[in-house]
Write the structure tokens for this entry.
Amino acid sequence: MRRLLVGIGASGAFLAALSCHPAGNGTRASIAPDSLRGIVSITGTAFEQQIALRSDNHVTPLAALTADSLALSRLGGVEVLVIGTRTGDRFHVDRFTAVSVAGAPVVDGILRDDGGRLSLETAQGRMTLGNPPTALRNLIAARVWIGGPLDSGPNTFGVIVPPKK
């Protein structure tokens, strides 16, 4: 009898705890984000391109919305941090950030013209570029990565998302 009462009590406690946590709705939004860091690898043709991330001797295929796929396809050979969810052997990208190029750190952001001075708008705020390459003046509002000392240059850069025309 005592064993039965303990079992009923434990079952009641379990059901009470379960009722405190609403069931997920089964969408990707209910799944906690994951992250992955590695080098973007592009294979295939322009018609059928595959984007993957190489990290720790492992290749993970990436799935992304069209705009992010286009942006990632411009980052072949660049180290990125992707945030999203893993489903089986594929990683679904929600967002990404360029981290390094050829082993050197870079900053990822939107290029802005602040009264004639160029700055890079990042998640941490705007960073004024001290001696930017002249070619950056044609890329205002583009998402770019910039390497080298931002305050003094010289800088290297690459386009992630071109400016809208």
